[in-house]
Specification:
The complex is a heterodimer of chains A (about 425) and B (about 400).
Chain A lengths: L1 H7 L19 H10 L3 H26 L8 H10 L9 H12 L8 H18 L7 H17 L1 E2 L1 H23 L2 H30 L3 E2 L9 H28 L3 H16 L2 H15 L8 H27 L2 H9 L4 H31 L11 H10 L8 H29 L5
Antiparallel strand pairs in A: 1-2
Helix pairs in contact in A: 5-10, 5-16, 6-7, 7-8, 8-9, 10-11, 10-13, 10-15, 10-16, 11-13, 12-13, 13-15, 14-15, 15-17
Chain B lengths: L1 H4 L10 H4 L1 H34 L29 H34 L4 H16 L2 H15 L25 E3 L2 E4 L1 E4 L3 H29 L5 H19 L4 E4 L2 E3 L2 E3 L2 E3 L1 H28 L2 H9 L4 H31 L11 H13 L2 H30 L5
Antiparallel strand pairs in B: 1-2, 2-7, 3-4, 5-6
Helix pairs in contact in B: 4-5, 4-9, 4-11, 4-12, 5-9, 6-9, 7-8, 9-11, 10-11, 11-13, 12-13
The chains are: A mainly alpha (about 425), B mainly alpha (about 400).
Chain lengths: ~425, ~400
């Protein structure tokens, strides 16, 4: 074979040919296009359809947004300016410029805007050590104090009210610390539960009054009915998020518990809350809660809503955490038992850190859902951003304006929810300890 | 060793209730029960006192009195002279209609978006990412309002469909002049059932039975002989042909009544109200975004080794998908899918935003306002949603226990 081959060759090339350039279809932009966008007829069709959709949407919306009019006092004026400039379509952003403060703060007094803004900035400071473990642990003390500070900043009034409520927690903590060495854990826990309740029932109000009379430090009071706009969504959302997590974890533990009654109570609570839409719970809060309270009780609609949203979210959190608890291998529970840890120590040191880590995506998703659900308060008469968009439209100057308001409100929610979902991805990566 | 087996002394100390693990759980549960009873008793006591102060009682008799209000979407006949109970039934039917149609459309949208988001095609997957993130991060209520505003503000008025002097109309009907999209709703053809239409239904049911029979026969045959039967083609043929044949043999028992412009509005056909369209589309698009993520996650959860193993066994790509990938992916996809259905059903109560007459708006809305029976109305409303949710989640539990991987 090789011999015949050698004889048949008249000429053998002595040097290598330079490598030919790849065909046009196999290099550069054309290759990328062929591989990514036009690899098959179906793919090509999809690409063309998608590009057509994107183009037709952008062709309508971009000029409308870019040509938007920022300087007008009513929709008619906007339209006049638009016709004057000879534009086909133009957004009337003037409504945002005119009413942004209502969409953000509701009827909160304008000269006091610094207070919610400060509370929001401080929220960032308080949340930072919780979100990012690299920050100093000492900042957590500020996080603990923040809820009281925020309540004082937002609602105003004497500083001693929130302080004396906070003192109740201090009393509980002190009781736990002092008694656990003297009288045993159980007595200390009971005392730690009783002390704050007794303090709030009997001592908190007089102490606050006394301190106010001695040292009157306070801010102008702002009534709950003046709260509104995006600030209201943030207040309800943040409080419910903070309160629902511990409650949800307790409910999840209750549902996993071997104690028959505790288990059944938790299951019933979770299923009943989850089985009924939030809107029905909100109507219950606004229509029926007064029936269940002692006659003459009258508490703030915002507080009622926060309680309802918290209970609602905690049932969802409980299910997410239960998933995490169930996903842990049995060996972890057995290992904790074999180390001789009691129930709470086993949960705190071994089970929950792992279970919560598994359930982070679900927990954050629940929080995102909760934050979006704060828009439902519009149906029970609270003026959240959507409520204000209706109020603004009721004004003759802005009658008939839709898209600008929806875009503004949607963008506000998008920013917050998108941040939360990205943070959950970051946390998942950070807490990933298994080998890859 | 012998000492350890000796049980503690019989004498019982009170402290054992707390420190002895045999009794402690009982103690805790008794205390919990007592606290719970106290709490419930307190609530019930408050309620009775408050009701007595208002001079009200708890009675469901109001359900059988005249409702006195109209419902604009009636799946079964109803007039304002009917009872509150019938109004509630109409509301329930409207809620179920939205729930079923919403689940269907959301599944279709979600599966397409989820699969397309995994596509290597950069434009398509980018577009789907924008869709999913946009709908997941903006409240449903805003989407409902936006779609409602698009329908009422963005669509042509019925009179725009009328040709002017030059014979040119500003708007025109779509789908071969059968569907009119106006700012008063979407008008679609309405099927008119003839006398013999029931035969068609029987033929269709029979052909579905036949499809299942062919499937099981084909499976048995393949297991016995290894030969494959083109089940899909036979199935489609069985589904379509007998019914179409019967349709023409019976002389077209089903006709369609198309909407026609008359007076100030369209006449004939079925009017799908804007409220219905808005809540249906918004729920479907919103839930579809979540389903898309479930589908994507389910497909990604199947390791590549599975499809490689299937290829190395000599299975073709479509058989691989059908026999190896899908059964495993579905186990991951279906539980969250069902809980999305549950969410959609509960979210349908947002119909309040656009005035769609669902159960919340009849039983839990107007009926309460007219009779002042908040407690009873909210209780019934809550019960309806609770039963619906428990039914859906029991379906999910049955499915979960069937497909569960068996462990120790």
């Amino acid at each position: 074979m090789s011999e015949a081959h050698a004889f048949s060759q008249a000429f053998v090339r002595g040097e290598m040919l330079p490598p030919a350039e790849a065909p046009v279809t196999e290099r550069g932009a054309v290759k990328w296009l062929r591989e990514n966008l036009f690899s098959s007829p179906l793919n090509a069709l999809l690409t063309i359809v998608s590009i057509f959709v994107i183009w037709s949407v952008l062709a309508h919306i971009l000029p409308w947004m870019v040509n938007g009019i920022w300087d007008a006092s009513s929709l008619t004026e906007c339209r006049a300016i638009r016709d004057e400039r000879g534009l086909d379509s133009a957004a009337c952003w003037a409504v945002i410029a005119d009413r942004w403060h209502q969409l953000m703060f509701g009827f909160y007094p304008q000269d006091l805007y610094w207070r919610p803004i400060l509370a929001f900035v401080l929220l960032g400071v308080a949340v930072a050590p919780v979100l990012y473990g690299s920050l100093s642990r000492k900042m957590l003390w500020f996080s603990l104090a923040y809820p009281f500070l925020a309540v004082w900043l937002l609602w105003g009034g004497s500083v001693w009210g929130p302080v004396s409520v906070a003192m109740g927690f201090c009393a509980g903590w002190l009781a736990l610390r002092l008694l656990s060495t003297v009288a045993g854990t159980l007595a200390a826990v009971i005392a730690a539960l009783l002390a704050p309740v007794l303090w709030w029932l009997f001592a908190a109000a007089p102490v606050a009054e006394y301190l106010t009379s001695v040292l009157p430090v306070g801010l102008t009071e702002v009534a709950s009915r003046d709260f509104g706009g995006f600030m209201l969504a943030l207040v309800i959302g943040t409080s419910a998020i903070v309160l629902s997590l511990p409650l949800g974890i307790l409910l999840a533990l209750g549902r996993q518990s071997n104690l028959f009654i505790i288990n059944k109570v938790s299951v019933t609570f979770i299923e009943v809350i989850r089985g009924v839409p939030l809107i029905v719970w909100l109507f219950t809060a606004s229509l029926l809660l007064n029936y269940f309270m002692p006659p003459g009780t009258n508490f703030d609609l915002i507080v009622r809503v926060i309680i309802m949203v918290t209970l609602f979210a905690s049932a969802y959190i409980a299910e997410v955490v239960r998933g995490g608890l169930a996903a842990l291998p049995k060996g972890q529970y057995e290992a904790a038992d074999s180390l001789g840890l009691d129930y709470w120590k086993a949960m705190r040191l071994i089970i929950l850190p792992q279970a919560l880590k598994i359930s982070i995506p679900g927990i954050v998703n629940t929080f995102i859902g909760l934050f979006k659900d704060t828009t439902l308060v519009v149906f029970i008469g609270l003026a959240d951003p959507i409520g204000f968009s209706n109020l603004i439209r009721a004004d003759t100057a802005w009658n008939g304006i839709y898209w600008e308001l929806f875009i503004f409100i949607g963008l506000l929610f998008f920013i917050f929810c998108f941040f939360m979902s990205r943070y959950s991805l970051y946390l998942e990566r950070k807490l990933q300890t298994d080998h890859r | 060793m012998a000492d350890a087996s000796v049980s503690p002394k019989d004498s019982f100390h009170l402290s054992q209730l707390i420190y002895d693990s045999r009794y402690r759980s009982l103690t805790i549960q008794t205390v919990a029960m007592m606290l719970l009873m106290l709490g419930i008793g307190w609530l019930v006591y408050n309620t009775t006192v408050n009701l007595a102060a208002l001079g009200k009682d708890i009675s469901f008799a109001y359900l059988w009195t005249t409702a006195g209000y109209d419902i604009n979407q009636q799946l079964i006949p109803y007039t304002s002279q009917d009872t509150h109970a019938r109004a509630a039934l109409l509301g329930i039917l409207n809620t179920l209609l939205i729930a079923v149609l919403g689940c269907l459309l959301a599944t279709i949208i979600g599966v397409f978006a989820g699969v397309l988001r995994l596509s290597k095609n950069w434009v398509v997957s980018g577009l789907m990412t924008v869709y999913v993130e946009g709908f997941r991060n903006i409240p449903l209520l805003i989407w409902i309002l936006i779609i409602f505003a698009v329908m009422t503000e963005g669509m042509p008025q019925p009179r725009d469909f009328r040709p002017d002097e030059n014979g040119v109309a500003e708007a025109s009907m779509i789908l071969w002049n059968t569907v009119a999209v106006t700012n008063r709703g979407v008008f679609v053809p309405r099927p008119v059932w003839g006398d013999t239409a029931w035969v068609l239904g029987i033929v269709l049911a029979l052909s579905i039975v036949a499809i299942f029979a062919v499937r099981s026969w084909a499976r048995k045959r393949q297991e016995a002989t290894g030969e494959q039967v083109p089940v899909l083609l036979i199935g489609i043929a069985l589904f379509v042909l007998p019914t179409v044949l019967a349709y023409f043999v019976l002389g077209r028992p089903v006709t369609f009544d198309s909407p026609v412009l008359g007076g100030f509005n369209f006449q004939g056909g079925t009017q799908l109200r804007n409220s219905f369209i808005a809540i249906w589309l918004a729920l479907s698009l919103y839930t579809g975004a979540f389903i898309a993520e479930n589908v994507r996650g389910g497909i990604l959860a199947i390791s590549k080794g599975q499809s490689e193993a299937a290829f190395s066994l000599g299975l073709r790509p479509n058989r691989t998908m059908q026999l190896v990938i899908l059964p495993q992916a579905l186990r991951v996809i279906i539980p969250p899918l069902i809980s999305q259905y549950l969410n959609l059903t509960k979210n349908s109560s947002l119909a309040i935003a656009v005035g769609y007459m669902d159960v919340r708006s009849t039983l839990g809305g107007i009926s309460i306002n007219q009779t002042g029976r908040e407690l009873e109305g909210m209780l019934l409303l809550g019960l309806f949603y609770l039963i619906a949710s428990l039914l859906i989640s029991s379906v999910m539990n049955v499915y979960n226990s069937r497909v569960k991987l068996k462990e120790r």
